[in-house]
Amino acid sequence: MAEIPDSYITIAKTGEAIFKEKGSKFLSFAIHIDSEDEADQIRREFKKKYYDATHVVYAFRLGTQGEKYRAADDGEPSGSSGIPVYNAIRSKNITNIIVLVVRYFGGTKLGIPGLIDAYSQAATLAIEQAETKEVLVTEIIMVKTTYANMNFVMRIVKENDLQIVEMGGSTYCEIKIAVRKNLKQNIEQSLNQNGKITQ
User: Rounded to two decimals, what is the model's pTM?
Assistant: First the structure.
């Protein structure tokens, strides 16, 4: 069975672009998000800011595998704008992102194929202007050990380039360690060898 990916690509810095087609102007923005609420808030802000625009189309994708998504045409013909924007996001395999395309109508109708192409290109340009980054999906391991065993624990942390999230305790040392998801089982086995570590 194939391993579920334990990393994903998102954007580190907002991307912006302008695309023009037959007099219509498309302003596009690719912005990092962490939740649907954040996506809704950004969408409302854009509708308010660009109140004079003909349409404010958007699509977002959330989750480590992009399992949550939404696309909206905002008055454009059904399927002509929101879905092409979403497909631009998906084709770049990016998640935790919202892309908004603000259209100012230029007087010439583009037709459905023209709209699909224009929104797709505008979205792609904004995504390409954004800086991307890889994010690791981590899980927390709780380690409770004696201070005498700390060197053993710290060696495993260092060898595997793990991140200590929190450390404390009095009689025992209690450590929270962030571990890449697909490595969790192996790290737990290493920490538990010889019964030195109690989880």
Answer: 0.75
